[in-house]
Amino acid sequence: MTATSELAFRFAGAFDAPAIASLIESAYRGEDSKRGWTTEAHLIEGNRTNAAEIASLIVDPKSRFVLAFDNTALVGCALIKNDNGLGYFGMFAVSPTLQGAGHGKKILSHAEQAIRQLWSCPTVAMTVISIREDLIAYYERRGYKRTGTKPFPFENEPGARRKDFHFVVLTKAWERTHPAGPG
Length: 183
Hints:
Blueprint: E1 8-11, H1 17-28, H2 30-33, H3 51-59, E2 63-70, E3 73-83, E4 86-94, H4 103-119, E5 123-129, H5 133-140, E6 145-150, E7 167-173
Helix pairs in contact: 1-3
């Protein structure tokens, strides 16, 4: 797998749930995550998701998981949703050993195109942990703007190592002249 390889994309099926959960865990929590720059292991311990949660999102008609493959290897994923006419982007993960190789930009772009094509949403939003300034800056370089905050659900994360953060809401609006769909 190389940074110059082309990625192949498809939407997830129910059989993909364990692999997606494993990829997300490896990118954000535990020892493997420390090999990449998206780790949350220093902030929260325990699981970020599980196959059952992923499976429930896969069957939801208002959501899809975009999967990215280098040859046959799953290298990245992202959850996209239609949230009452607004796009949502989350659960974005790239294999920790491949982070920084350009795959994330390709996956983000493909996910944005899918949101426009599937649902014609005028805006896409996401949340990022407030103290992850490097991650927020990554999205800002791709056209996202800080548009608000939300409390972090510490009650759902008993393994929080720190409690001095919240979510930053980032949004990106499509230009009205931009065609809906890939282009």
